[in-house]
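Throughout this chapter, every protein is written as a compact record of paired, labelled lines. The reader may check this reading against the record printed directly beneath this paragraph:
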Amino acid sequence: MTSVRLADLEPVGLLGDGGQGVVTQVRVPGAFPGPMAFKRYEPGVLRELEHDVLADMIAHPGHAGPGFRALLETQLAWPVALVRDEHDTVCGFLMPQAPEVFWGNLHLPNSAGTLTPVRLDYLLNPPEYTNRINLLTSPSLRLNLLLDAARMLLALHADDVVVGDLSPRNFLFTTFHWRCFLLDCDAMTVRGRSPLPPVETPDWQLPSGEPVGTKAGDRFKFGLMVIRVLCSDQSLRDPEELRPGFPALADLARQAQLAPDERPGWDEWIDAIEAAKPGASTAVVMPAPPAPVTAPPAPVTAPVPPPAVPLAPAPPVRPGGASRPLTMRQWAVFALVLVVVICIIGLVANKDHQRPADRSGTTSGSTPFDTGAGEDEPTAYPTRTQPTTAPAVPVAPSAVGIVTLPAGADGTAVAVGRMFDQYFTGINNRDWDATLAVYDPAGGIVHADNLKERSSFIDSMTTTTDDDVVLWSVQPGGAGVLARITFRSRQNAGFGPKGSENETCLRWDNTYSLSGDATGYRIYKKTKGTHAPCPSG
């Protein structure tokens, strides 16, 4: 079917409202088995629309190669039918909706409690932002998403399809199996022809004078995407910011900014990203811009002692003596050293006015990991028996949400605690997307994008409430680290685990193998687990 009547569409709800038109969810009885997305163009856009090119785009899968056809099922919002109004004039087209796995319960303004498309441009922000919106990320996740995007572009280019307006805003992604979903396919160029005049996203434009809608243009913009996704930055262009963690990718990103015929091909990108994955857990990525020195946030990783000589580094010098402006990474180092200097001076000047930390390890009224602007993180102060010149050393919080941490928890334990807090809080709040997001699909416990496994998990947990969660230890092992945790679960009779189906209160002692790193852990598998009825009384 290449076209349908506007009158045959049954509206379901609004999906989006962009510059070219409105996208709604519709049903088309007798034509498509499930809901579809309908993009109705604005009148001004319709005047520029090449109807025959859009019709050819709809017919393209019939003679496309296997790589392109494999993307159609789950990774492309490709046009499938024209929509004609009462005057038999094309007014828009139908396309598949993004699968459920590409939607999440993000904590965004005005979207509480609703599923939201998870766009790749959310990753162009520092970890503080992604954590706040309930999006766990890591260097490994970012590399795997870039790898999938490169493979998609390889398949598209092999069929002479050019994205043109390539930017993270047009990509959705899932953390479950590291896949991307490409939007705005009607703006692409197929065999040199595009249904609409090509456009570019601001700050993602090609070099001046270079034509839009070419394969070389896609390769240029992909180089920018690699820099910005791995460095958590909206507008960064300097490939050198990648070099500390990903030197080979920095070389390719620089090559992508050369003349069109000198830019790296997709095989080069794929090989380089694959090679970077084993070291992703220790890779250095772009830090957040330095905070004002008047209210520096406390680090959430293990504390690092100040340098022996706290002097600001001199800016690098180019050959010939010309000074070079500091990079953002160097400004971050400069600000950090300056903060240390100010803290030491403040402690020396106020050594007779130091106050002790309370027994919980946090100062009165503080909230661990609250990154609100202008609010101080909890800080432990030295007692009078310590040298009065010793710098203040942050103490890890005693708990993350509902998870009690082990004594002296370091940055790894805090990150593990944060992950388990998301897991157990998600169960208690029936926020299944947040709960299932912490399972690593490679571990095989639950594949959240498998509807049968997802439904089975939700059914088994639908009456469960967990509390008294204690993280006892975190140590190297398994897929990355091993974490031992105890908790109490309460559930209705008939919903207990096998062998204890009718128990309504159980005490658990589990050890999990976790994958990932301190920027985001996931449950890989359970290596040990016991449970027993809660003590009476």
Notes: The longest helix spans residues 328-349. Confidence is low (pLDDT under 50) at residues 282-334, 339-396.
